[in-house]
Amino acid sequence: MFRKAVVRGCSLIVYQRQRALSKISKNGSKLFLASFALFGTAQKQEIDTSKFMAEPVTSVDVLLKNKEDMKSKMELMILQVQKEFCRALEEEETGSQRFVVDKWYRKEGGGGITCVLQDGEVFEKAGVNISVITGLLPSNMAAQMRSRGKNIPSDAKLSFFAAGISSVIHPTNPMVPTVHFNYRYFEVQDSEGVQFWFGGGTDLTPYYLDEDDVKHFHKTLKNACDSHDNTYYGKFKKWCDDYFHVTHRGERRGVGGLFFDDLDGPTKEQAFNFVKDCANSVIPSYVPLVKKHKNDKFTEEEKTWQQLRRGRYVEFNLIYDRGTKFGLYTPGARYESILMSLPLTARWEYMHKPARDSREEKLVEVLKNPRDWL
């Protein structure tokens, strides 16, 4: 009797299922098939490329297959940060200009996505680049790494992987500061395995000093640091002041921020999460300053001062910046993307000095003597 009840129950369930499917087939087969197709697509495609400015440099299939590999994680992260920052800037641009997207490849391996907005009403030139490159490590780059304490063999051909995002924003209004950020991941493969490290930072270059702006900027970066290690901000703030030193001028490029390199711990995953949080802090640290000042009035003399300070920016980038040198010395270098960091216009005047007790002199005093802002 019990078996009969079970059989009857099962038969009833099968019968009801068949009737339901028959009804769907007659009245809603198209809807059923469409739902099935969407489900199948979602299962197959787990990366939403609409969140990026362009398709990834690495094929989506490879990224999915190696989604737990740090190379894939870093590429997907910088793609998303690039899109979010470009869209945030476009929301502030009052003119019709939008980012031009230029995807490129290098024959030696890898490529990049360069996004540039120029001649805007708010942004004279804004560049947001990502690169994902592979190849053999050039000997001069290997020597530079050894000088920083890396255990890089000098007599072997080594394959490398590098992925990073780099951005420089040159505003039209001299009351809006310039911002730069760069976050990167590097791997070198040798006979003993893989060496890896992260690097990067975010820094601010105002033309006229607004202390509230600088404090907001530093506080936002400190919050990102403190969620991982409360010693990071102090260490990386000093490193930033020291790194962005225009030695021949005896002044810093700006009012600092964060800078670090050769970060390989506490674990690879923790280091990646720290870098991701720093990259995600760029919008809240900078965009409020654009909103605050983009409509400020300015004089022709103040615009000239902006051009003169941009000249210092160019001097640092071309003479001292390691990232620029790395790009220029990499085989198959794409110079248009590397020099994206330079402004459309700049100015050099012979033996220029700001007027005494002027706002311009106040800025220079801070650049010569870095301060603690928090």
TrEMBL record:
Pathway linked to the protein: Porphyrin-containing compound metabolism; protoporphyrin-IX biosynthesis; protoporphyrinogen-IX from coproporphyrinogen-III (O2 route): step 1/1
UniProt keywords, alphabetically: Heme biosynthesis, Oxidoreductase, Porphyrin biosynthesis
Enzyme class: oxidoreductase
Annotated Gene Ontology cellular component terms: cytoplasm
SUPFAM superfamilies: Coproporphyrinogen III oxidase (SSF102886)
InterPro entries in alphabetical order: Coprogen_oxidase_aer (IPR001260), Coprogen_oxidase_aer_sf (IPR036406), Coprogen_oxidase_CS (IPR018375)
GO terms assigned for molecular function: coproporphyrinogen oxidase activity
EC number: 1.3.3.3
Single GO biological process annotation from the record: protoporphyrinogen IX biosynthetic process
Quaternary organization: Homodimer.
Family to which this protein belongs: Belongs to the aerobic coproporphyrinogen-III oxidase family.
Protein name: coproporphyrinogen oxidase
Organism: Agrilus planipennis (Emerald ash borer)
Gene that encodes the chain: LOC108739024
